[in-house]
Amino acid sequence: MEIRLRPELESLIKQDVERGPYQSVDEFVEHAVSMLHEREAWLAQNRSEIARKIEEGYAAAERGELIESSEVRARLAAAKRLSSNHP
């Protein structure tokens, strides 16, 4: 398979290969595609749950049940820490 990239993307990839743990552009691209595939699979698997949570949040906002932005950031940071401990 041959893939053509814009020059600025090629440059970014080359920079990452030079400073990162990747031995080649191929290795970098394989890793990137694998990560993207995992994310897309997770989104597909959790689509209905995500939609449900969005609807719950929208309904709560309609009722005036809002939380401060600092609380949102704290909750997101906690969730991120939790998810980074469980691959």
How does this structure look, described?
- The chain has 87 residues and is an all-alpha fold.
- The chain has one domain (7-84).
- 77% of the residues lie in helices and 0% in strands.
- It contains 3 helices and no strands.
- The chain has helices at residues 7-19, 25-62, 69-84.
- The longest helix is centred in the middle third of the chain and has 38 residues, at 25-62.
- The protein is elongated and about 50 Å long.
- The chain starts with 6 loop residues before the first helix and ends with a helix.
- 0% of the residues are buried.
- The mean pLDDT is 92.
How many domains make up the 3D coordinates? Answer: 1
Shape by Cα distribution? elongated
Q: Tell me the quaternary state.
A: single chain
Give helix % range. over 70%
Report strand %.
under 5%
- Would you report the number of β strands? 0
Short description:
The chain is mainly alpha-helical and 87 residues long.
SSE diagram, text form:
Layout (H helix, E strand, L loop, with lengths): L6 H13 L5 H38 L6 H16 L3
